[in-house]
Amino acid sequence: MKFPEPVTHEFGCFLHITDLNFYFAVVNYFSHNVDDPYNHYIKIGHRNFKFFSKQGGLYNPKTKKLAFEYMFHWKDETGASKCSYSIKPLFGAGTKTKNGKVLNLPTVGTQIHIESSYIDLDEHFDIIFEIMDFLGASRFQDKIDRSRSTIYQMARHVRYHERHEHDMVAMLQAIEQESSMLGDSKLVKTLKSGKYDMYKLDNPDFSVCNLRTEWQHSVKSYRITNFLDRVPEDPLRHPKLEVFLKSNTKLNPSISEFLSLKRDLDKLLYSLISFLNQPLEYVSDNYFNAESVFDHRHDLPEWDYKNQSHQSQHIDLGENMRAVKALAYIALQSEGCADFRDIQEGTEIPERSLWRYINYWKSEGYLDTVREHCTKVFFKTRSIWEASKQPLIDFCSAFHIGFKKIFGEVFIDSGVIRQYRERAKNLRIIKSKKSAKKSQDQEPIIVDSYRHADKLRKELNELGVHRKIGVRSSHNTMRYSRVFS
Description:
Elements: E1 2-4, E2 7-17, H1 21-33, E3 41-44, E4 47-59, E5 66-75, E6 82-91, E7 95-96, E8 102-103, E9 108-117, H2 121-134, E10 144-159, H3 165-178, E11 186-192, E12 195-202, E13 217-222, E14 240-245, H4 258-275, E15 293-295, H5 321-332, E16 337-339, H6 340-347, H7 351-363, E17 367-371, E18 375-379, H8 382-398, E19 403-406, E20 409-413, E21 427-429, H9 435-441, E22 445-447, H10 450-463, E23 469-471, E24 483-484
Parallel strand pairs: 22-23
Antiparallel strand pairs: 1-15, 2-9, 2-10, 3-4, 4-5, 5-6, 6-9, 7-8, 10-14, 11-12, 12-13, 13-14, 16-18, 17-18, 19-20, 20-21, 23-24
Domain DUF7845: 4-291
InterPro entries: DUF7845 (IPR057167)
Pfam families: DUF7845 (PF25227)
């Protein structure tokens, strides 16, 4: 299958230089050669960089004053391609900040913060080496520690014709619908005149479409802000499909892993395009060349996004009813996700048995787990959760498997036989994040008299159910208010 060469859009990283003297070399050049600190430019290659300084946020332990940071900034005529280099000192352990905090920086050295658009890492190294030569500090070129230098931002994209936008967004919607039920993803969707200004999936679970990536990524289909003002012939009227690194301070790749990250992003981008299962028309612009096409010879995952919503889910409940009880408890939670300890407390299943049931449902492909502050258990896809939630509630309620459904709310049944007046002690309501809003949206319970309404309201209060009660209008009730909250 043929694909165009994606272009690197946004890129950001922190270069770590193991010698603090490079920072002092920059300070020395600035203090002796810059007459106007607000309007000084230096020529590096074909780019004219503005060279200036600003007060930083770290105290110099020797002078007890805030250390300055030195900036090199450039952008092209359109303002789309730009780069910025911020040179900062690293004073090591015990460094104080202007906010009064103490940073235990692991090493002493110099940090170069790189932010750019449409400039790749190889070109950044060329520019930095030329800057070092210009400052008379070429001796520090071999002091860059690639293992400690980390990439926190990288985006790769292609620009495609707007006639394919409907299919592209439909494919992304299918991923969002089937994505992880953990609840830590984010969807951004904005339309202008029926066209998508932005459709962004932040931190989705690509495993639902048979994709495995080395790092966590996000994806978006988007346009320039004023695309409606552009003529049809203008390439900036057409959308871009972009995949980008989901930054995680502890898991960000190092500079030495740059090529692996680039390959990981490109594979994700090609796989998403291949899911459309149709030839895509690409649009060239000032930075993306649609005619630079190559033949991709590696296998890509297959996924039919159009048939996902029509697949029926069949769950074999097995023979152990306590395993069903655990599954039902998770299904009752907001977004099909619950903490392990909450499941154990709510179902009163022993810990070892509960782990055995959860591992069984994981092996069947219905549940998954993740360890954060505590272990979270969740349905792998939204379609499985939505298909199983109501049948599990009805099944457990009908066969008295730990739950009862009363007045639209679900309770945990203790199974203990008590006197009728103490029946509320048998039931403990299951509350989720959306339970309050859900109860407000439900239809009120209609009764024939105020006496019946008072009795029912008292019973609901004992159970902890929040429902509106309405009294049917008649000649006996017309002179009073007909709704109790």
